TrEMBL record:
<feature type="binding site">
    <location>
        <position position="195"/>
    </location>
    <ligand>
        <name>substrate</name>
    </ligand>
</feature>
<feature type="site" description="Transition state stabilizer">
    <location>
        <position position="156"/>
    </location>
</feature>
<feature type="binding site">
    <location>
        <begin position="246"/>
        <end position="247"/>
    </location>
    <ligand>
        <name>substrate</name>
    </ligand>
</feature>
<keyword id="KW-0486">Methionine biosynthesis</keyword>
<dbReference type="InterPro" id="IPR000649">
    <property type="entry name" value="IF-2B-related"/>
</dbReference>
<keyword id="KW-0413">Isomerase</keyword>
<comment type="pathway">
    <text>Amino-acid biosynthesis; L-methionine biosynthesis via salvage pathway; L-methionine from S-methyl-5-thio-alpha-D-ribose 1-phosphate: step 1/6.</text>
</comment>
<dbReference type="InterPro" id="IPR027363">
    <property type="entry name" value="M1Pi_N"/>
</dbReference>
<comment type="similarity">
    <text>Belongs to the EIF-2B alpha/beta/delta subunits family. MtnA subfamily.</text>
</comment>
<dbReference type="InterPro" id="IPR005251">
    <property type="entry name" value="IF-M1Pi"/>
</dbReference>
<protein>
    <recommendedName>
        <fullName>Methylthioribose-1-phosphate isomerase</fullName>
        <ecNumber>5.3.1.23</ecNumber>
    </recommendedName>
</protein>
<dbReference type="InterPro" id="IPR011559">
    <property type="entry name" value="Initiation_fac_2B_a/b/d"/>
</dbReference>
<dbReference type="InterPro" id="IPR037171">
    <property type="entry name" value="NagB/RpiA_transferase-like"/>
</dbReference>
<feature type="active site" description="Proton donor">
    <location>
        <position position="236"/>
    </location>
</feature>
<dbReference type="GO" id="GO:0019509">
    <property type="term" value="P:L-methionine salvage from methylthioadenosine"/>
</dbReference>
<keyword id="KW-0028">Amino-acid biosynthesis</keyword>
<dbReference type="Pfam" id="PF01008">
    <property type="entry name" value="IF-2B"/>
</dbReference>
Amino acid sequence: MLRTIEYRDGKVYIIDQTKLPTVNEIIAIETVEECFDAIKKLKVRGAPAIGIAAAYGVVLGIADLKEIDFDSFYKELKKVTEYLSSSRPTAVNLFWALNRMEKKALENKEKPVEEIKKILENEAISIQREDEEICRKIGENGAHVLKDGSTVLTHCNAGVLATSKYGTALAPIYFAKEKGWNIKVFADETRPLLQGARLTAFELNEASVDVTLITDNMAAMVMAKGWIDVVIVGCDRVAANGDVANKIGTYGVALLAKAHNIPFYIAGPTTTIDLNTATGEDIVIEERDREEIICGFGKQTAPSDVKVFNPAFDVTPHELIAGIITEKGIVRAPYDINLKKLFD
Ligand SMILES: CSC[C@H]1O[C@H](OP(=O)(O)O)[C@H](O)[C@@H]1O
């Protein structure tokens, strides 16, 4: 199975996902600036992977701090976390991971700075290792919405390439395959950055999973033909009432699933649930550069001066969601009550 992120000898190694599927290149990230750039440009992307990368970014950002008192150290640490938190606004895992690193430093404020740095390095490693087990459990729990012979539609990439291993929305598919079930997948290409075409089709092919790539505007037709049994997609932020921010186009897929009586599931770790965000209206939606639409992947496909709207995510209202597959089980409505129970 692919490895999205690896930390060794003080460097972070990632697959540069902007070059997939034609070039599978591992790059070394050695500074916090390179980590910021990798997150901003989606060299590493997907909520859990962004959180893991940011945690390692903190380790890189404090590496040169030496022989200073804790207050001076923590002041510099906060500069690093604030810098990394400005890379992308929507995936809550970024902020969750940075807050966890800050909290770990404060918990060890009495120790020498060199020891704190080692503790933070181990914390980042723990965040990655925990994510592996979380995604495995998401796969196990998500398999309950599948059966031998199921056909799944998914949107964007919420697979191995968005996490430390297994994925979230794709984890149930990998788990079902391990059980010997025959699972087919329809993958939306997912404009404008084509994570479905470039990443989901790539990783499912690598794993010998039966995948059919469709353009986003074909989802209605394949549903109308009765080819889809269930929709499973990832998430970037789950609000306290169950509204979910995910890749742009997800809301449309949820509406189509509703219109065709197809169950629509979200898959994600509890680290993507943000009880401090009341509803989907409170989620900041990242807007990205116009060039991604006008000149995607080097070919100009629109007038250079045309107005462009390029939100990277949209919000699916909780009413359209059959369940949220987490490592702790499948959460169902009423989400405002049942999501809180996950944290009791
Ligand atoms: C497992 S989280 C994957 C989630 O993140 C993606 O966004 P991006 O590629 O911009 O980081 C997309 O929303 C996926 O569902």
